[in-house]
Automatic annotation (TrEMBL):
Record-listed E.C. numbers: 1.1.1.169
Domain Ketopantoate reductase N-terminal: 22-161
Protein name: 2-dehydropantoate 2-reductase
Domain Ketopantoate reductase C-terminal: 198-311
GO molecular function, one term: 2-dehydropantoate 2-reductase activity
Keyword set, alphabetical order: NADP, Oxidoreductase, Pantothenate biosynthesis
Family as reported in the entry's similarity comment: Belongs to the ketopantoate reductase family.
């Protein structure tokens, strides 16, 4: 597989490599961007989506608007479920849509392909490894600000698109090969040794950003300026929980990262709230609260933010203004 390390067979021997085929489950802001970049770089990409989305992609292709990568359109092979062997599958749906989306990706069809969830939160790895062979499921995180404006239209506004990969079960050569292939498409990729640290380091930053920007209804710059005390308190609480769970970032690291991002940056949770979509509140805030309880830690500020956002979402859902997940 050009750009992907040679796979080993079931007894550890090397098998002949071929050009990689990548499946992308969920052609939204993240999956659409990654799949389009891979396709532009010459990879064969199969998108898995709902029937209406798949039909639109087959008809119109996939268009990306990006300051970093430029504006381009690629033709698309879009289907409703995986029906052929692939080398890797990037799972890029929201956590709220994961269970129904996985019906498009049967274990039999998946074969020996790597499964790379680029989901928010820290609890999905267990569920995926119950469904698919553990050595094939790779922990992944992505830093990017990218939005699906319409089926087949992706707007990438951040100057970065950076992925971290790790697995305690997957052979390192397969991780390195996957990273190389993604890198050739222009994506920044780092392979780390500790999958728990990868997930919790991302969640330390993301939970602070998502909960505060969504609660305030403003980009991070206004939070930094007007809610500094809350920002510091939440960062301390979440970093403490993350450290107990296996993360490596301290509160000062999280705050420094939040201070570096563009003032106009909005979290994906805030964008979902503005669009009236279901929030990934349980995957992000809920993960922190459950880990805090497991480790006997008090997180009053974080808990109050989660409770307030849950109440808002409940009231919005009761009013009928909350649409179903895409």
């Amino acid at each position: 597989m050009t750009g992907f390390a040679q796979q080993t067979d079931d007894v550890g021997g090397q098998v002949q490599s071929t050009d990689a085929t990548i499946a992308v489950l969920g052609p939204g802001g993240v999956g659409g961007l990654l799949g389009a970049l891979l396709a532009r770089a010459g990879r064969r990409v199969v998108f898995l989506a709902r029937p209406d989305t798949a039909a639109a992609l087959r008809r119109d292709g996939l268009t990306v608007r990006s300051h970093r990568y430029g504006d381009f359109t690629v033709p698309v092979d879009a289907r409703t479920e995986l029906d052929e062997p692939v080398d890797a599958c990037l799972i890029a749906v929201k956590q709220t849509a994961l269970d129904p989306a996985l019906t498009r990706l049967s274990a039999d069809a998946l074969g020996r392909a790597l499964v790379v969830p680029l989901l928010n939160g820290a609890e999905h790895m267990t569920a995926l490894r119950e469904r698919y062979p553990a050595p094939q499921v790779v922990a992944g995180t992505i830093r990017v600000e990218s939005t699906r404006l319409a089926p087949g239209l992706i707007e990438h506004v951040s100057p970065f698109a950076a992925i971290e990969l790790a697995s305690h079960a997957t052979p390192r050569d397969r991780l390195d090969g996957l990273a190389e292939g993604l890198g050739r498409a222009g994506i920044d990729v780092t392979v780390r040794d500790d999958e728990t640290a990868v997930l919790w380091d991302k969640l330390s930053f993301l939970a602070s950003l998502a909960l505060l920007t969504t609660y305030a209804g403003t980009p991070i710059g206004e939070v930094r300026e007007n809610r500094r005390t809350e920002l510091l308190a939440v960062a301390r609480e979440i970093a403490t929980v993350a450290g107990a769970a296996g993360g490596t970032l301290g509160a000062e690291d999280v705050v420094a990262a939040l201070d570096r991002v563009d003032a106009g940056m909005k979290s994906s949770m805030l964008r979902d709230a503005e669009a009236g979509r279901e929030l990934e509140l349980d995957a992000i805030g809920g993960s922190v609260l459950r880990a805090a309880e497991r480790h006997g830690l008090e997180v009053p500020v974080t808990a109050a933010l989660v409770a307030d956002l849950r109440d808002r979402e409940s009231r919005r859902s009761s009013s009928g203004s909350l649409p179903s997940s895409a």
